[in-house]
């Protein structure tokens, strides 16, 4: 968001360091002289560094300045890469075809540059056969290694085995 600067009558200092619209330093002037100089040029007096002693004020078109700042922020937001976490869940007794569907789903998420959280649920006595879960996770890693890399390998959290796969960045 564009931070609000003090403009014209909002400036409280008695004297200010004045800078004209080309960026040239004019010097330390009283607030009245600075306001007159800005009015003569048909511009605004904007306090750009209130913490300085005396505060630094610049003669500029404030409306145009705010517009340019908003435009820059919008452009920066557009170039920002937002990564979502998508989840793929499966059980230990998953059939080959069902596994292929889950693999396809994970590949689609990675192609869309989303991070994939794989959750393998263990129910009842399945907890005694965690090696089956590790084999399923290894199969999934092999099926997605061309699109992403494992961020955190398969590890147990209660009755679930979890793993995160991050998409490869476009370098």
Automatic annotation (TrEMBL):
Primary localisation category: cytoplasm
GO CC terms in record: cytosol; membrane
Presence of keyword Cytoplasm: yes
Ranges where the Translation initiation factor 3 N-terminal domain occurs: 7-76
Location in or out of the cell: Cytoplasm
Record's keyword annotation contains Cytoplasm: yes
Domain of life: Bacteria
Any one of the GO BP annotations: ribosome disassembly
Keyword list, A-Z: Cytoplasm, Initiation factor, Protein biosynthesis
Sequence ranges assigned to domain Translation initiation factor 3 C-terminal in this UniProt record: 84-167
Gene3D superfamilies documented for this protein: Translation initiation factor 3 (IF-3), C-terminal domain, Translation initiation factor 3 (IF-3), N-terminal domain
An example Gene Ontology molecular-function term: translation initiation factor activity
Self-association state and partner proteins as the record states: Monomer.
Protein's job: IF-3 binds to the 30S ribosomal subunit and shifts the equilibrium between 70S ribosomes and their 50S and 30S subunits in favor of the free subunits, thus enhancing the availability of 30S subunits on which protein synthesis initiation begins.
Family affiliation: Belongs to the IF-3 family.
NCBIfam families, sorted: infC
Protein name: Translation initiation factor IF-3
